[in-house]
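Technical note accompanying the year-one report. For the benefit of new consortium partners, we illustrate the data format agreed upon in the data management plan: each record pairs a sequence with a structure-token string. No post-processing was applied to the example shown here.
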Amino acid sequence: FITVEQDTDIVVFFFSSRRRHTRFLPVSWARRCVQETGTWGRHYRTRVPKFPRDLVYNPFTCDIMVGGAGNEIYRLSLDEGKFLAPFQTSNDEINVLDYNKYLNILVAGGTNGLLELWD
């Protein structure tokens, strides 16, 4: 059971694991924050440079990818605890992100109608 104390609007969230002891909940807030919450409470919160619209978790690299109001996909490394170099896209803004764990591919869709893939 995970409880999230809400002090602003939640944009998107997801459960990262089905196993009870390792479950954590990345949450994207409307005020440019990404927060990691576990069953023990809030673990980590950081601000992202642009307003987020979607986020995904890459289990192979332990990165949270954040896309939003801008042409960059920000990569927050949970292993290193810092932002890595962002992915540059051809879209003006990123609306949706998805990650295929079987093929290890990140997919981004944006306002220009382009679908971009990274492996």
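Partners are asked to follow this layout when depositing records. Confidence is low (pLDDT under 50) at residues 18-24.
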